[in-house]
Amino acid sequence: MRKLFTIFAIGTSMLVLSACNTVKGAGKDVESVGDCADGVKGNC
């Protein structure tokens, strides 16, 4: 079970990291999620 979880976690991490080509892009993604949660208009 632990091995399956590890494989799933690594696979998910690879997909998430491949969606953001740069560290700057990853920062923008995280910031936009935070803005959406804060209710900033136009970021959801």
Structural write-up:
- By secondary structure, the chain is mostly helical.
- The protein has one domain.
- It is 77% helix and 0% strand.
- It is built from 2 helices and no strands.
- The longest helix has 18 residues, at 2-19.
- It is elongated.
- The relative contact order is 0.09.
Helix content: over 70%
Report the sheet with the most strands, covering strand number, pairing sense and barrel closure: none
Along the chain, the helix and strand elements come as HH
First-last Cα distance: 36 Å
Assign the structural class, choosing from mainly alpha, mainly beta, alpha/beta, alpha+beta, or little secondary structure.
mainly alpha
Number of domains: 1
Count of alpha and pi helical runs: 2
Please tally the β strands and state the result. 0
Q: Assess the beta-strand content as a share of residues.
A: under 5%
Low-confidence stretches: none
Average of the residue pLDDT scores: 76
* Overall outline: elongated
Radius of gyration: 14 Å
